[in-house]
Amino acid sequence: MNNRQKLVIIPGWSNAGNKMWKHQLPYLQEHYDVETIVVSNKTTVSEMADEVLRRTPDTFLLLGHSLGGLIAQNVALKAPHRVKRLMLVGTFPGNTPVEQRAFFETGMLKPLLDGSIAQHWEQLNKACVAPTRENDQDLLQELLECQGLSVEGLINQTRVLMDARDISNQLSALTMPTLILYGRQDQFFSLEMQHLMMEKLPNAQLSIIEECGHLPPLEQPEMVSHLLTQWLESNRESNLIDKKEKQQ
Questions:
Q1: For the chain, which residues make up each domain, given as ranges?
Q2: Are 183 and 139 in contact (CB under 8 A)?
Q3: C-alpha 218: how far from its chain's center?
Q4: Residue 247 predicted with pLDDT over 60
Q5: What is the pLDDT of residues 16-40, one digit of tens each?
Q6: 178 has which bridge partners?
């Protein structure tokens, strides 16, 4: 009988699977029943969260990156009793500034709709990494290998980013242990957004990763593996103690 906890990964924009987490998967798969859920056939974040809940067991751990982190927060708000641990990586609580919303529209949605996205893809990917590594071809190739959604799926995901609404004032309802990981040089979501989530989430820990942009698991794989392992191990030990106390 498999008694291992389910750990669900929700990838970010354009990611078609779990390759973003290839460096962390050996540890995660050793200790958890890992499943990656890509949602690109829905047009609102609420619908995407419902789809995740439809495809998951009664309880699970949840890891979301970027757009996946926004979806993860909505999943947890809809079913806090089901999400036992929450990991948010390079994400935001939906409080999109006007200029960023405009970028999602003109720099991402418009090229997708008019068929010119291929001309923008390299610059989009370079913006995902720390500025000092924007010409790191090995890293950019790793990112490219993570991406594989259809244009329709990309349009859906981009509309969700554009239409995001600020949920930060609802986060105080989420009492499960939460880890926030953030790359110091992230050009998509600000440090202020991370501090806002940290302030609102009652049981959160924030770790800032230096020399890192929007893709911590690829840019700083050893550090992310260490932080995830350390945090998950501490929570696994606490969970085992709780179970033992209940049995006594």
A1: 6-97+156-247
A2: no
A3: 13
A4: no
A5: 999 999 999 999 999 999 999 999 9
A6: 86, 204
